[in-house]
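Please annotate the following for my students:
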Amino acid sequence: NDQPLFSGNYWANDDSDDDFQIDCLLGFTSRCVSILARIAELARECDSQRISSETGDIIEDWTPNDETLQKAEHLKSDLQDARMHRYNGCPHRPSTPVMHRKRGKDRDEAGWDLLEMVATNEAFHWAGLIHLNRRILGKKNEDVEVQIAVREIVSALFKVRKGGTAEACLLFPIFTAGCDARERGQREVIIERLSSIEESGMTQVHKARTLIEKVWETGRPWETLVSGEFF
């Protein structure tokens, strides 16, 4: 079976000096992905408890135990600290300061690159918060913190060019926000960006879009509509 996203020791945090360096190929820092890996592991544990093995539905009166609550609060604090931390530039990008570049087009491109990398990295942090609140703490779709995170991810999309390489990195945050998007405008933006990414040839985008639309149609959480593990 395929390994779920953000699983395994590959994503373990090594506490290196590059923890807050945004990888321009992936769209996030190593610190962010190490936190997401821990959220994913705990979320899978909670899913096995909060989703009925008989009906496949959410057990409405399920609540996390004290140990899980403590882990969740620690993860939430780590997400907040990592998102607010000053980011380092990507080593794959030119090190020459933007102001020292001669051509205006180069300056514009460099400005877009930085804006997109920061927006993409922050979108992953907000997506982690949604999974933490929904799947670990068992909060409802309408929870204030969940909806703030959805709005932040949608806002981040406006800082990323359509059809660009940064957009292709955003499938996970887009999917996460899409499943809990309640407003029509948000949903329209989600579908628009998924369509744009799909044009790049990413075959899994169609499956993600179909699942999001099924969530909107049924009102059920995405994790009750799939077999196997997405995250």
About this structure: Residues 7-14, 95-102 have pLDDT under 50 and may be disordered. The CA atoms of residues 24 and 93 lie 8 Å apart. The two ends are 14 Å apart (CA to CA).
